[in-house]
Amino acid sequence: MQTQSSSAPRARRPNARDAKRAARTARSHSSVPFITRNIPLYEVLNNEGLELLEHNADTILEEIGIDFRDDPETIAILRAAGADAQGERVRFPRGMCRTIVSRSAPREFTQHARNPERSVIIGGARTVFAPAYGSPFVRSLDEGRRYARIEDFRNFVKLTYQSNALHHSGGTICEPVDLPVNKRHFDMVYSHMRWSDKPYMGSVTASERAEDTVEMTKILFGDQYLDPATGKPRTFVISLINANSPMTWDATMLGALKTYARANQATILTPFILAGAMSPVTVAGTVAQTLAEALAGMTVAQLVNPGAPVVLGSFASSLSMQSGAPTFGTPEPALVLYVMAQLARRLGVPFRSGGSLCGSKIADGQAAFESANTLLPTCMAGVNFVLHTAGWLEGGLTMGYEKFVMDADQAGMMHTLLAGVDLSENGQAMQAMRDVGPGKHYLGCAHTQANFETAFYRSPLADNNSFEQWEAEGSKDIAQRANTLWKRQLAEYEAPPIDPAVDEALLDYIQRRKASFPDSNV
Amino acid sequence: MQTQSSSAPRARRPNARDAKRAARTARSHSSVPFITRNIPLYEVLNNEGLELLEHNADTILEEIGIDFRDDPETIAILRAAGADAQGERVRFPRGMCRTIVSRSAPREFTQHARNPERSVIIGGARTVFAPAYGSPFVRSLDEGRRYARIEDFRNFVKLTYQSNALHHSGGTICEPVDLPVNKRHFDMVYSHMRWSDKPYMGSVTASERAEDTVEMTKILFGDQYLDPATGKPRTFVISLINANSPMTWDATMLGALKTYARANQATILTPFILAGAMSPVTVAGTVAQTLAEALAGMTVAQLVNPGAPVVLGSFASSLSMQSGAPTFGTPEPALVLYVMAQLARRLGVPFRSGGSLCGSKIADGQAAFESANTLLPTCMAGVNFVLHTAGWLEGGLTMGYEKFVMDADQAGMMHTLLAGVDLSENGQAMQAMRDVGPGKHYLGCAHTQANFETAFYRSPLADNNSFEQWEAEGSKDIAQRANTLWKRQLAEYEAPPIDPAVDEALLDYIQRRKASFPDSNV
């Protein structure tokens, strides 16, 4: 397997196969299940700076400690491994967490999709784009902002399935608040399984819901669930396990974490931080705390099942010191992202961060500035798993229909950027310059004709027509054009095929499990 | 002087002075006349790739050649230096241009402002932001799109003067089409001199207009014009000299170039390229052609006055292969920008590119996505002189009032990004984490209080209030808030002081020169 480093993927004179692969990644990204980057990483700190922050993370783990709330089992596991537990406060000897994680956590792993062509490799030089996650509201130009419903959830699963730029179906794309809290995970997981064939995320809001996700996954994959070579489960699910920063993990998240890790399913250990409230107001402080918290979480996963796939997650926004509101797309979170990506590589685990984050309520210029200021660093830093790639509005409170297709367009562009500079003979185009010569134009020359189909990323949403034509077409902004696009996509949606027996078994499982609940909405 | 390299500015453990300077640059950028970057450069190609493209540029200069139109003087100068001229077609022996430019062009230089605190250093680790340039139209939410007037020109000079994020007054910020073509340069240059004290650009549309710019500069700076140590003029003006790509320089631009170079004033030699029409449809082809054209132009400057300050310019957008329209903010121009910045550093001259480019007609999400996708690469690549930092709409046809203040906000953020990670003891914030501990919050802790004023970039335009408050305030998008901001700024504008005798002398010069023209509008 190719390993990722800042120097390795720099352009050498590529051979024909390289050029073909780069062209495929850049232009027809319909055919790529994930991005394999072909440009160098951006690394903001040198080794000395990184060692300092690693030292500080170890100081936090050793001197301050991490609270593990309401979960004696986890505390017993950590104590047995050499940690010092006083009540719920656990302190780790310097280097303990790093040693445990480095020893068994995989550097990269495959998350299998029910369509094998859509399986993703998470880690190394790959980038996987997943939609936004967790919004209670949705927004469209037609209806404004309202609570999300399961119908919206299905719509976003379908739009994600249709997008060439998104590789992963995601998880709680929006909260279907029209369904009971204790049952809606069945409908969400089923939607991913039924209306898409891309890989998906599991429920984490209770360990039983994680178990339901695993059970449904066993039904969906049947014979394929176990790897005959190892006798262990293959990895089909990845799930988001958030810390209660600062320096706290709670029983709900730890319960889901242990369920998935024991089943060899992947987890993303993510300190979710609004700097200034849940971490210090500085980049270096936020980074050290994030690393300490994530290390402690990954340690639990590796102790309950050494080798279980884990991803180091970082979600850091800054707080407005005036209003106390979270802010997005500002420079400080970008710096946190760059440093955390470096630290994850040094630890040897895949990294999750970034996306198209914004604080704006609507798909306006603020949303676009902030989203681009997050997505570009995400790609330059080499993030492996990108949650919140498309749809995010209002600090994650709202999933936007127009914003979704606007963000997916931007994610499409990133395929071209990460493919880098084509230095093949065709890329150098010396014959074109000889053919055209001074003072002429290249519009009709042989080289332009030969590259017509593949030259330049094509946005389905940017309007580059003349002012007069744009005005004649109604002076629309990009959000209005996006409104037309997502509706057209949904109208054209066709579900991927599924074995009717499998579908019936899934629905049967859901019906049985739902029937076992007391008829409560809590 | 500090030289710029990809490894030098990486974070060592900074001393107190470093931290102080970084904090100043990051937060109170009112006090910095330009950015001194403190984060590594992003370099997309390795040496082998760069050598290949330099080789290709030399092949273009040697085998294909460059046309110098209607300018026998320039051709004679080039022939005398060793070039082969057949009619207007000039071919250069391999390495000739590079040798001439490297021998005498300064690696960096100071452009003096009439307020010495606003003088800029162009080159090395510095980035200087200037507003957009050249639009015949202006746009505001109040009036829509209309032809620009001298009143608009003055407004943008004032807004630029007021902006902490813009370091340079720019040049033809918009075309004052209410003034005669042959006289409007007087009013433009005077506006920069009178309504700002930041450095400015000169007229290039005829060599006599360049001479007028130099004469007015002599009046403005008086005794300071000549450097007593060398007896040569100091550099007070920088001007934009565009090639007629492909591979052509015309007499108008060459005339202005020679006028400025002989007066020791700075020039930016810029191939202005819509790839697919004026260069091949590939990144590597566009880069090689840009380098060849710029080298030829800089060679002329160094031959007429060895040591005259020159800047290697690159403006590359891609063409929609469907409509033939120029497109902006796409990945290919970003790759051109990254590579050209590397090539300029290898040549040893300052580099101009980038800005906040977009194709959108209005300050919507398209404009913001495209602008951010240009400005971030601009900053990561280490561009020294950034034209079109603020206001650009519609491929440069329109200067937007709202877009201007939105872009200036983004340029402000870049100050914080380029200041990098503060690894001082305060930045590490270990005591804050000890003070707060697991499960608590940082809002009131001593470290947060101490850093309250300087923590996090503050946008004057982003709305991060609650949905309810945003709705109560009229559900405004960022363009509407920007409309309020630029009007408030203009209302609060106060002109910088000027010696009344100098002002009178400038107005007298303009009156005499204008009176000498036949009363024609051509």
Topology of helices and strands:
2 copies of one chain form a homodimer.
Chain A: H1 16-27, E1 35-36, H2 47-64, E2 66-68, H3 72-80, E3 84-86, E4 89-91, H4 96-104, E5 108-111, E6 120-123, E7 126-129, E8 137-140, E9 144-147, H5 150-162, H6 184-195, E10 200-201, H7 207-221, E11 237-243, E12 248-249, H8 251-262, E13 266-275, H9 283-304, E14 310-313, E15 315-319, E16 326-327, H10 331-347, E17 351-352, H11 365-381, E18 385-386, E19 392-393, E20 398-400, H12 401-419, H13 425-428, H14 430-436, H15 446-451, H16 467-472, H17 478-492, H18 500-515
Parallel strand pairs in A: 2-12, 7-18, 8-20, 10-11, 11-13, 13-14, 13-15, 14-17
Antiparallel strand pairs in A: 1-7, 2-4, 3-4, 5-6, 8-9, 15-16, 19-20
Helix pairs in contact in A: 1-12, 2-9, 4-9, 5-6, 6-7, 6-18, 7-8, 8-9, 9-10, 10-11, 11-12, 12-17
Q: Specify the number of helices of chain A.
A: 18
Fraction of residues in β-strands of chain A: 5-15%
List segments of chain A where confidence is low: pLDDT < 50 over at least 5 consecutive residues: 1-15, 24-29
Radius of gyration of chain A: 23 Å
Compute the average pLDDT of chain A: 94
The shape of chain A is globular
Q: What is the CATH-assigned architecture of chain A?
A: Alpha-Beta Barrel
> How would you sum up the major sheet of chain A?
7 strands, mixed
* CATH hierarchy class name of chain A: Alpha Beta
Number of separate strands of chain A: 20
Structural class of chain A: alpha/beta
CATH homologous superfamily classification of chain A: Trimethylamine methyltransferase-like
Number of separate structural domains of chain A: 1
Biggest interface and which pair forms it? A-B, 130 and 129 residues
Q: Return the CATH topology of chain A.
A: TIM Barrel
Assembly level? homodimer
Measured distance between first and last alpha carbons of chain A? 47 Å
Amount of helix of chain A: 40-55%
